[in-house]
Design goal:
GO terms for molecular function: ATP binding; protein histidine kinase activity. By secondary structure, the chain is of the alpha+beta class. The chain has six helices and seven strands.
Length: 224
């Protein structure tokens, strides 16, 4: 008996394309970028909702709490957007990064913030901690020193004394720290956050008065 001819499905080799590792990596990168974009937009939306709610509350205390919350979330949204725009593991140029963060804080709080200093590159993790510290110190300055003063200014400076250590200095033009101020016993959530992050950076915090309050964080330059 003659064997029937093989069908085309049996005789022709499979032409199914197997995705390469490069294709899979590109797809993953696109997915991560899209997710990060959505996260950043969602955070900005939450901050906008808090600012809107602030106009509806009856007490100054509630209004202040919502203002602080919206400023914090705004800062995190911008921080997230900046970091996901970098290549993984790429260093962050601190001055330009803090200028972006400070501009967003100014939009939220209405207080002018000037950032200056020497060029310095740090890891994304260190940049995140430093940005949160700056945000909290600026919020604290507005709350306790400046209030609604339209001429108020907060100065943020980055410097290096010996090449291996950096310092961050935030100063305001308010009445200064109260007599007997103890920086080792913070009385607000914001200053607790500052102390905790400074410890994580292996840094030292110091406080003084010099035509206003001055907070200085000295820390070893993080390896890149």
């Amino acid at each position: 008996m003659t064997k029937p001819p093989a069908s085309s499905a049996e005789s022709e080799p499979s032409t199914k394309t197997v995705p390469s590792s490069k294709d899979e990596s590109t797809g993953a990168d696109v997915y991560i970028a899209e997710t990060n974009h959505r996260v950043s937009n969602s955070l900005s939306m939450v901050a906008a909702m808090l600012r809107h709610k602030r106009r509806q509350v009856a007490t100054a205390e509630a209004s202040e709490a919502l203002l602080e919350a919206s400023a914090r979330i705004d800062g995190i949204a911008l921080l997230h957007k900046h970091l996901y725009s970098l290549e993984p593991g790429a260093p962050v140029e601190l001055i330009s990064f803090l200028r972006s963060i400070s501009a967003r804080i100014t939009e939220s709080l209405g207080t002018r913030i000037e950032v200056r200093g020497c060029p310095a590159e740090v890891t994304g993790h260190a940049a995140t901690d430093i940005a949160v510290i700056v945000t909290e110190l600026c919020l604290n300055a507005v709350k306790h020193a400046h209030g609604s003063d339209p001429d108020a200014c907060i100065s943020v400076e980055i410097g290096s004394s010996d090449g291996t250590h950096l310092f961050l200095e935030v100063r305001d033009t308010g009445p200064g720290l109260p007599e007997g101020f103890d920086g080792s016993a913070p009385d607000s959530m914001g200053m607790h956050i500052v102390g905790s992050l400074a410890e994580g950076l292996g840094g030292d915090l110091s406080y003084r008065n010099d035509s206003g309050a001055v907070v200085r964080l000295s820390f070893r330059r993080p390896p890149r």
